[in-house]
């Protein structure tokens, strides 16, 4: 229908693709989706282009962007298709998370959270806001899917928990996402020059968060070797290629920890003097790590939304007739606000 918006059409297309994947029958689905979220200008687009072997300069992501890749499995076998979604704007467009992730597409979805290591003061707020918003929406979709296909939800739970050995000591202490999650720390080339104590705080904190949410954790930069490692991980999410079992927990090297291979005993306690931990009133381990991290890297008080340019006022998207109508509507809105304000003042005087 002509009255449908672009997002309504895109959302319907995603739902159609997901609903064609069977009803929890255990079959491997040939189409998967990878959703990139994370820091603004953190390198999400660069990683996607590298994974798709596209030699082109990355462009700023306006809101929610989509592309796809194909991979042949064998002769006369249909190619696997991977759908790549990318959320722009850092934490300013959280409402758009609900567009690609639906109860129909949930079983074929993975999340990649890209965090800019060169901006440690922005890292925790970005990570917290994006993970909370994404997990909240996923939990709603899990409940919705469970009402019609409880077997599919059960299979998802089993698959995620299979990443951790049954006798792992932390099984009762973690709360993993029910879809695969990968946390990537970008711009390692800048991060590696940080003071060693600051690197220690960031590495241990990210290891705890990744372990708690059942995520893989890895650092990358412009280094070809690191990009190849990341590409392998993304290909595993997108096309089901064998998962890497390598691990590196040395804070003096780029971290690379596959989900389920870390432990709280290896991570250790938050890097703060023992006599100070008691002063940090925290209701949960996650809150304790947050308080410790923010003592070293206080979050900026600046509202993240202020840093986001209004796409409607971006010159590269200018359209004369649309802009004129927008200006007219803005003026009408301001006039309405003024008239409403006068009306309320008059009512207060009369009363």
UniProtKB/TrEMBL annotation:
Disordered: where is this region? 300-351
| Annotated Pfam families | DLIC
Provide this UniProt record's keywords sorted from A to Z.
Cell projection, Cilium, Cilium biogenesis/degradation, Cytoplasm, Cytoskeleton, Developmental protein, Dynein, Microtubule, Motor protein
Q: Which InterPro entries match?
A: DYNC2LI1 (IPR040045), Dynein_light_int_chain (IPR022780), P-loop_NTPase (IPR027417)
Keyword Magnesium included in the entry's annotation = no
Localization, per the record, is:
Cytoplasm, Cytoskeleton, Cilium axoneme; Cytoplasm, Cytoskeleton, Cilium basal body; Cytoplasm, Cytoskeleton, Microtubule organizing center, Centrosome
What highest taxon heads this organism's lineage?
A: Eukaryota
Q: Which GO terms describe its biological process?
A: intraciliary retrograde transport; intraciliary transport involved in cilium assembly
Provide the primary localization: cytoplasm
Quote a single Gene Ontology cellular component term.
microtubule
Basic and acidic residues bias: start-end ranges? 306-337
Return one GO MF term.
Answer: dynein heavy chain binding
Matches recorded under PANTHER family? CYTOPLASMIC DYNEIN 2 LIGHT INTERMEDIATE CHAIN 1, DYNEIN 2 LIGHT INTERMEDIATE CHAIN, ISOFORM 2
Q: Which family does it belong to?
A: Belongs to the dynein light intermediate chain family.
- Return the protein name: Cytoplasmic dynein 2 light intermediate chain 1
Species annotation: Ursus maritimus
């Amino acid at each position: 229908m002509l009255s449908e918006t672009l997002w309504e059409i895109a959302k319907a297309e995603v739902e159609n693709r997901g609903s064609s994947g069977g009803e929890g029958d255990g079959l491997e689905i040939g189409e998967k989706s990878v959703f990139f979220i994370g820091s603004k200008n953190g390198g999400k687009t660069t990683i996607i282009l590298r994974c798709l072997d596209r030699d082109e300069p990355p462009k700023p992501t306006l809101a929610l962007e989509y592309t796809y890749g194909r991979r042949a499995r064998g002769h006369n076998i249909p190619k696997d298709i991977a759908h790549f979604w990318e959320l722009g704007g850092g934490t300013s467009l959280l409402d758009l998370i609900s567009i690609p992730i639906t109860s129909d597409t949930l079983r074929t979805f993975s999340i990649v959270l890209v965090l800019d290591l060169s901006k440690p003061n922005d890292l925790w707020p970005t990570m917290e806001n994006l993970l909370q918003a994404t997990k909240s929406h996923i939990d709603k979709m899990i409940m919705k899917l469970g009402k019609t296909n409880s077997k599919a939800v059960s299979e998802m739970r089993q698959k995620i928990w299979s990443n951790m050995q049954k006798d792992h000591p932390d099984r009762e202490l973690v709360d993993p996402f029910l879809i695969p999650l990968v946390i990537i720390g970008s711009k390692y080339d800048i991060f590696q020059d940080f003071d060693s104590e600051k690197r220690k705080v960031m590495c241990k904190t990210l290891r705890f968060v990744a372990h708690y949410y059942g995520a893989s954790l890895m650092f990358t930069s412009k280094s070809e070797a690191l990009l190849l490692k990341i590409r392998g991980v993304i290909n595993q999410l997108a096309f089901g290629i064998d998962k890497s079992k390598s691990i590196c927990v040395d804070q003096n090297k780029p971290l690379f920890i596959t989900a389920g291979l870390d432990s709280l005993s290896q991570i250790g306690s938050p890097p703060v003097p023992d006599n100070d931990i008691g002063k940090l009133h925290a209701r949960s381990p996650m809150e304790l790590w947050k308080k410790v991290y923010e003592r070293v890297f206080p979050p900026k008080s600046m509202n993240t939304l202020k840093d986001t340019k209004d796409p409607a006022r971006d010159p590269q998207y200018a359209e004369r007739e649309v802009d004129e109508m927008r200006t007219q509507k803005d003026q009408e809105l301001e006039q309405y606000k003024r008239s409403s304000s006068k009306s309320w003042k008059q009512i207060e005087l009369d009363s």
